[in-house]
Amino acid sequence: IRLVLGLSADKDIAECLQAVLQFVDPSRLHIIQARHPRAAAPQALVSAAASLGSPLPKANYGYANIKEGIDAALHAAVSSSSNNKNKRPETVVVCGTFFIMGEVRQALGFDEPQDSAVIAEVAGAQFAAAQELFEDVPSSSSSSSTSSSSTRGAG
């Protein structure tokens, strides 16, 4: 198995990698990063793997985008399969955070539905998966105090 992995920064990266590395050799683990503010930086995963005693080859991370990472993993799987004495094809598995999946599907050639321009603008089109872009939205308790103060200031 060859694994392509992208995680969210708020997960226990070392624990996730410890589980993954029980089943996948580090030479077959490729690290990718979603275009989302919650995505873990690839270097965080690389450092965690090294601290677990499983350093990753430099060719398996540092991709410019998800498509480049997927292409590298697929190419490595084909090369490995053609050099394999048993001629068993290598399986490529993509896993991790939900935020990578839209980009992965596009990299694999799936025709992904696109939001209208209005929805894309509201959702934050600069992110491939902007479902959780609520950082600037005040909580309900602070919004009532904010609206009272803005009402007072408006008069």
Number of beta-strand segments:
3
Structural class of the helices, strands and pairings? mainly alpha
**What percent of residues adopt helix (DSSP H or I)?**
40-55%
Distance between the termini: 66 Å
The helix count comes to 6
Rounded mean pLDDT score: 81
Q: Looking across the biggest beta sheet, what order are the strands in? A: 2-1-3
Largest sheet: 3 strands, parallel
- Radius of gyration (Å): 20 Å
Uncertain runs: 129-155
- The shape, in one word, is globular
> What string gives the helices and strands in order?
EHEHHEHHH
Strand content: 5-15%
Structure notes:
With 155 residues, the protein is mainly α. 43% of the residues lie in helices and 8% in strands. It is built from six helices and three strands, in the order βαβααβααα. The protein has a three-stranded parallel beta sheet with strand order 2-1-3, with helices on both faces. Strand 1, helix 1 and strand 2 form a beta-alpha-beta unit. Helix 3 packs across helix 4 (101-107). The longest helix has 18 residues, at 66-83. It is globular. The termini are far apart. Residues 129-155 have low confidence and may be disordered.
